[in-house]
Design goal:
Number of helices: 16
CATH class of the largest domain: Mainly Alpha
Bound molecules: magnesium ion
CATH architecture of the largest domain: Orthogonal Bundle
Number of strands: 11
Oligomer: single chain
Strand content: 15-25%
Strand order of the largest sheet: 4-3-2-1-5-6-7
Structural class: alpha/beta
CATH superfamily of the largest domain: RNA polymerase sigma factor, region 2, helix turn helix motif
Shape: globular
Radius of gyration: 20 Å
Number of domains: 2
Order of helices and strands: EHEHEHEHEHEHEHEHHHHEEEHHHHH
Length: 378
Amino acid sequence: MKKISILGSTGSIGTSTLEVVRHLGEGYEVIALSTRQNIDLLEQQIKEFRPKIVSVSDPQKAQELQKRLPSQEILTGIEGAIAVATHPETNLVISAMSGVIGLQPTVEAIRAGKNIGLANKEVLVSGGEFVMSLVKKHNVQLIPIDSEHSAIFQCLVGEDSQNIRRLILTASGGPFRDCTATQLEQVTVEQALKHPNWSMGAKVTIDSSTLMNKGLEVIEARWLFDIPSDQIQVVIHPQSIIHSMVEFNDGSIKAQLSEPSMLIPIQYALTYPQRKPGILPPFDFLQSEVLQFHLPDTVKFPCLALALNALKAGGSFPCTMNAANEVLVDRFLQGQIGWMGIGNKLEQLMSRHSSVNIGSIKDLFDIDQAAREEAATI
Ligand code: MG
């Protein structure tokens, strides 16, 4: 029996996870759910899946939901999210909160010996080395849900990682792939929120439009698969049919292909190491007779280069970059800065940063906080 806790159950990954649980039926039980503030949707989820505990980060919203459902155990704050992540009955935690706020509950779940289905990329971007050392120490499975990493994870089944020559991460290129520099200066929030292939939350959709998302994914892949950054390549593949590839040292390349739908990597994480019949109809190759590939333009999309540089610089650079990017994306969504401002301001912040040692989760939070304060005012 897979007994599941979902951190971020009302977001895009959370609702799709529940769709897959509903589809899989027997053998899957929802133990605990958490949300930031969407209590209307959480209320429906409670009625359908009957979790033992739920948590609402926003304390006022938690109180409001408690009034509606007096007999349901409802927790709040970061402690509530940690209780969801570490519930004694849970054996698989889907980590799908948006942003670095998901780091601590995920770390506590690992410490409690839970297997993790990881959709929150900030966990490994900010705390890669630290988090992976805990995964080894507590001997838990870390199963990626991000489509690219799920693709690589699936390609590596039965393989010896010694034989990897390259990981090839595909990127759709986002909505502004073919824009000129002048057009990029006039990008609106509405345009940036329209992804051509994927339907996702706001933060990751904006990150996809700047290619920061791919940068974060390279960092995530470096830690998840323990591969040096110079063996990870990014390729633009506008059709989003090949989700990523692995090249082995004999020259053979394995790729994972499917419809661009998160239902597939989510289901793989839930059924791993098995497979079960999926939700989508069989894939029709004849509908995608052209698959294109080209290199990313890091001049038009500086965020990708900034992320790769942060990974090479190591230390506190990735954590700082990730936190600053989160704030800048938020400022763009609020209409305070332009789309180009995200990359330009991030570049200034990164050039000022000097690395700090990371010895604990507290160090990560201090670095994260300092970067946020700087990014809020630059
Ligand atoms: Mg992805």
